[in-house]
Amino acid sequence: MDLTLWQYQFRIIMLGDSTVGKSSLLRRYTEDSFLESINQTVGVDFYVHFLEVEPGVRVKLQFWDTAGQERFRSVTRSYYRNSVGGMLVFDMTNRASFDHIREWHAEVCEWLQPHKVLFILVGQKSDRDAHSERVVSREEAEKLAGQLGMAYVEASAKTGQNVREAFELLTRWVYQGLLTGEVALQEGWDGVRCALPQTLRLQRASIYQPCTAPQNSKKCCD
Ligand code: GTP
Ligand code: MG
Fold first, then answer.
1. pLDDT for 190-218, tens place per residue?
2. Domains in the chain: how many in total?
3. Does residue 42 belong to any structural domain of this protein?
4. Which residues 6+ apart lie within 8 Å of 78 measured at CB?
5. What are the residue ranges of helices labelled H in 113-162?
6. Which of 19, 34, 63 to mutate to test the pocket of ligand 1 (most atoms within 8 A of CB)?
7. Which domain holds residue 19?
8. pTM: predicted TM-score of the whole model, two decimal places
9. CATH number at residue 174
């Protein structure tokens, strides 16, 4: 089977302070590996993963892994616009990284207008909770997520706990947004893309369903 076949492509952006573990989350999700010593991201890195959101509906997830360091901000900002989903990440053992979440959120929303990104908040390094290193409680993180209108998940790239769950929750939320029309496909915007017509023809001949928009939403490939 050709693993490149997909019906939708979602662009997801990873955001949060340096060292919170954005790249580590992506490594865990896409390669199931973890490095104690990992290079800081320079500018933006790129990861790909495929997920079947329902039988026959395969999504290609394109991740933009941005550098948390301030000096790369002008580069990373240019990736906001073409994202449909965003993972806002803080380190639960680093108070400042939690305090900065509102700023990350506000900055992206400001740059994105009139587009909208669907976010999820992730409290990273939950493995360190066992060593009493947590400085941000689940309650206050859940409260912030509620105020910002997003779900909250605690995860550990080190142990793998909740990593797949966090990415899948976000992906399914974007997919639901397509179903309900909350995510609108627009000319010249690459946050969501559909398979090319030629690929579609191949898909129709395979087990995959054609790339029509899900029920109740606009047709995606018009
Ligand atoms: P920038 O690229 O600079 O924005 O940082 P980042 O957010 O991508 O962080 P990165 O993934 O590079 O991880 C920073 C450090 O945290 C590395 O030493 C990782 O090994 C460590 N780390 C990442 N995730 C976890 C985790 O879940 N638990 C623990 N204990 N350490 C982690
Ligand atoms: Mg990184």
1. 899 987 554 444 444 444 444 444 544 43
2. 1
3. yes
4. none
5. 138-148
6. 19
7. 8-207
8. 0.89
9. 3.40.50.300
